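New to this. Explain these tokens.
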Amino acid sequence: MAFGRRREHARRGTPADLLVVGLGNPGKEYAHTRHNVGFDVIELLAQRHAGSLKGGRENSLVAEVRIDGRRVTLAQPLTYMNLSGDAVGPLVRRHGIEDPQALVVVHDELDLPLGQVKVKVGGGLAGHNGLRSIKAHLHTADFVRVRIGVGKPPSKEQGADHVLKRVGKSERTELDIAVQEAADAVELILAEGPEAAMNQVNTRRR
């Protein structure tokens, strides 16, 4: 496992209790698309906890906040989605994350209906290139995921358009609610652990 091992990204000071990474693509043209719901959750958490996202050496925007007295690092990789591991690997080492379950990755999920939120620990990657890149860098898939449903495209050929185009007003409302619920799920993971979060979040009906 690559957690916390490379000196060039050694942590200085107290490690984070939780590292929360929202996946997306940088650039205004991708803002608030289905693919960038992970970014939206990080921005909301930073707002809730008086954090300011700033550029760092790990090719990410990062905010370090306290939630109920615990240290939480929030991050948006500035790599493109398919290269998310290029940022997450150094972030894990920089912030002293040695337990995979202290890493929470928030991402869009084609296999869930629009607006549905689920928590998952480890397991398959469901063809998500951002998760695949993270697993390749960390040599484990045992991190926690907060999955935000964006629904399936009409066909595989329309997959890229489905996740990268701006959504209509009604769908945006659904996604905004899901972003709130996903941020709540992250706070629940911190407060009670991934298993408790799964038990509570995954049984909700919308």
Remarks:
- The first helix runs from residue 37 to 48.
